[in-house]
From TrEMBL:
Bifunctional enzyme that catalyzes the epimerization of the S- and R-forms of NAD(P)HX and the dehydration of the S-form of NAD(P)HX at the expense of ADP, which is converted to AMP. This allows the repair of both epimers of NAD(P)HX, a damaged form of NAD(P)H that is a result of enzymatic or heat-dependent hydration. Residues 1-193 form the YjeF N-terminal domain. Keywords: ATP-binding, Isomerase, Lyase, Metal-binding, Multifunctional enzyme, NAD, NADP, Nucleotide-binding, Potassium. (6S)-NADPHX binds at residues 47-51, 111-117, 136, 234, 288, 334, 397. Its EC number is 4.2.1.136, 5.1.99.6. It comes from Acidiphilium multivorum (strain DSM 11245 / JCM 8867 / NBRC 100883 / AIU 301). This is Bifunctional NAD(P)H-hydrate repair enzyme. It catalyses: (6S)-NADHX + ADP = AMP + phosphate + NADH + H(+); (6S)-NADPHX + ADP = AMP + phosphate + NADPH + H(+); (6R)-NADPHX = (6S)-NADPHX; (6R)-NADHX = (6S)-NADHX. Residues 201-451 form the YjeF C-terminal domain.
């Protein structure tokens, strides 16, 4: 049972009532999406199975032909046993033939109580379903991590309760859930208050974007310095994104590259001179810089106490030496860079990002289709709005530019990184398929406008 379920019970809410509401929500979600058809409920021994018995009863009440196939009897005197006792319809043996002939199968085998790998017999049964609706999670998906224990079926619809779990947002679990519905089941507010939440889905309710002061000047909006190296395109992409997200002034520090837009300042001054300028508080270090140069400049910036977003070559320069990143504000590794810097961290993405953030005392943005943003104090957000066509060269440079552009405007590092990742995904969605990295920055202003309009 999850922490929130336990908290609900200690608030005086009955488990049976929650189960009744959960099963009813499953039936409602099914009725809304499918025509009446022959349904088979595969019921496990715990509360997930109990939800299945309730869903069976609710569908049967609406005239749907339903049978329940228990994979194991409910534990005696449990809520699930009480729900099973109220089921008056057919109880059949769980075999593959029955599963195949059902027009819709409800997976009520394991939910939050999944404790070990699912046995091959159960895997085969679930795999035989033509159309599958999973209660809470597809059985075999670990709700805490999105990992698959043994095997898990691909559901057409997953109905969960009270709040999405990490496993609904992290791959591979996310891909197995199909459409995901989160139903309200009467969980009392006091139960939520008792459980300290440290993991969220990344949405605009988590952060507030900076607004320019009516009388502010460009330096007050923030002066970002981006180190530019031999692959100057990366720094130019980052600069464009930082400017579009509202940085008042962006300087590229390094050799004067070709094709720099006129609004970007290029400085060839020595690093020692730039780093001692008190107005240059925030720096982006890494994209296109070259590993050796990135390592040297990173050390100099850290020593000067600057707020740094470290990406790309700056991360590779710290391969196997994560302590070199201590003192930065945020790092933005993809899986390859993460593995280089933290070769000993092997757990799921959420745990790894958290452990890395705690180790270096900085925000870690572990990029991918399910980017995880983790703070050193244990807070973490999982992002789910990035379309797959965001995987294109230069899009990471753009993300680093957005994050640095928000940091320079005074957002705290965790909020700046969460906002950057969400805005990046939203800009990509707005740009549509065929997107190239150069497109992203131009979509940021409308994405920001929409956030304001919908008053998130
Ligand atoms: N009690 C509550 O407050 C609520 C619980 N709900 C439901 O309760 C579910 C969690 O119920 P439970 O904690 O009873 O857990 P489950 O029903 O997920 O499974 C528990 C049982 O399965 C066994 N088990 C776990 N993994 C197994 C494996 N791989 N092979 C064989 N047996 C295995 C466990 O030992 C245990 O006996 C949620 O997913 C949700 O569906 C909902 O009714 C909403 C409210
Ligand atoms: N399958 C995917 N779906 C959605 N977003 C993705 C996917 N793969 C990668 N991304 C995102 O694309 C960006 C790629 O960054 P990165 O690998 O650093 O690229 P580059 O170095 O070329 O700029 C990251 O923000 C990452 O989260
Ligand atoms: K399930």
């Amino acid at each position: 049972m999850g922490l929130i379920d336990t908290a609900a019970l200690s608030c005086g809410v009955s488990g049976l009532m929650l189960m009744e509401n959960a099963g009813t929500a499953v039936a409602r979600a099914i009725v809304r999406r499918f025509r009446p058809c022959r349904v088979l409920v595969l019921a496990g021994p715990g509360n997930n199975g109990g939800d299945g018995y309730v869903a069976a009863r609710r569908l049967a009440e609406r005239g749907w032909p339903v049978a329940v196939a228990p994979l194991a009897p409910p534990r005696p005197a449990s809520d699930a046993a009480a729900a099973a006792a109220l089921w008056r319809g057919p109880v059949v043996a769980a075999d593959e033939g029955r599963v195949q002939s059902a027009e819709l199968v409800i997976d009520a085998v394991f939910g939050a109580g999944l404790a070990r790998d699912v046995d091959p017999g159960t895997v085969a049964l679930l795999g035989a379903a033509r159309r599958l609706v999973a209660i809470d999670v597809p059985s075999g998906v670990d709700g805490a991590t999105g990992a698959v224990r043994g095997a898990a079926p691909r559901a057409d619809l997953t109905v969960t309760f009270a709040g999405l779990k990490p496993g609904h947002l992290l791959f591979p679990g996310r891909a197995l859930c199909g459409e995901t519905v989160c139903a309200e089941i009467g969980m009392p507010a006091a139960a939520f208050a008792r459980v300290e939440t440290k993991t969220w889905r990344n949405t605009p309710v988590l952060w507030r974007l900076p607004a320019p002061a009516a009388t502010g000047h460009k330096y007050e909006r923030g002066h970002l310095t981006i180190l530019a190296g031999p692959m100057s395109g990366a720094a130019i992409l980052a600069a464009a994104a930082a400017r579009r997200i509202g940085a008042g002034l962006v300087t590229l520090a390094g050799p004067d590259p070709a094709g720099v837009p006129p609004g970007i300042i290029v400085s060839r001054a020595a690093l020692d001179e730039l780093v001692t300028d008190p107005r240059r508080r925030v720096w982006l270090c890494g994209p296109g810089l070259g590993v050796e140069a990135a390592g040297q400049t990173l050390a100099r910036l850290v020593a000067a106490g600057r707020a740094i977003v470290a990406d790309a070559d700056a991360l590779t320069s710290a391969a196997g030496e994560a302590e070199r990143l201590r003192g930065v504000a945020a790092i933005t590794p993809h899986e390859g860079e993460f593995a280089r810097v933290f070769p000993d961290l092997q757990a799921d993405r959420l745990s790894r990002a958290r452990a890395a953030a705690a180790r270096i005392g900085a925000v870690v943005v572990l990029k991918g289709p399910d980017t995880v943003i983790a703070a050193p104090d244990g807070r973490a957000a999982i992002n789910a709005n990035a379309p797959p066509f965001l995987a294109t060269a230069g899009s990471g440079d753009t993300l680093a530019g957005i994050a640095a552009g928000l940091l320079v405007q005074g957002m705290p590092a965790f909020e700046a990184c969460c906002a950057a990742v969400w805005l990046h995904g939203a800009a990509a969605t707005r740009a549509g398929g065929g997107l190239i990295a150069e497109d992203l920055a131009d979509h940021l202003p409308m994405v920001v406008e929409n956030i304001k309009k919908f008053n998130f």
